[in-house]
């Protein structure tokens, strides 16, 4: 029992303070990673910035809106909208949705109803549930079996505003519409 005498205990207590000195070192190392974390956080945020430019706005199925839509992102219409849509992104008209107005968009997908003209689109897709009353001017047009359309379609023309390069080839209607005088 001489080992457990009180004189031996103070020696162990004297050894106890040196382990306390590494403890502040551990605390000192904790702030260093926290400084590094904010430095790495802005880098992914700047990488995600282009994705923010392509955000999609949704008009829900229980909404009816009248006005004008302009922007650089995508628009998904599930409700009813009366007015013109001018977006640099894509326009999707869902099943059961209805749009009354003109459309200018990069890509237009019609699964619902569109009553109005599509002008200067790169691509138009009329799905089997889609119905359209109006004219289309686009680079590429895809029409699914079962879809409905009433209007004129111009596609595949390389010039601006759907006009030909003056070759005179193609449908008569397209040549007549492209004539200036």
TrEMBL record:
Region (Disordered) residue spans: 1-52, 154-181
Biased composition (Low complexity): 32-51
Composition-biased stretches (Gly residues): 165-181
Membership in a protein family: Belongs to the bactofilin family.
Name of the featured protein: Polymer-forming cytoskeletal protein
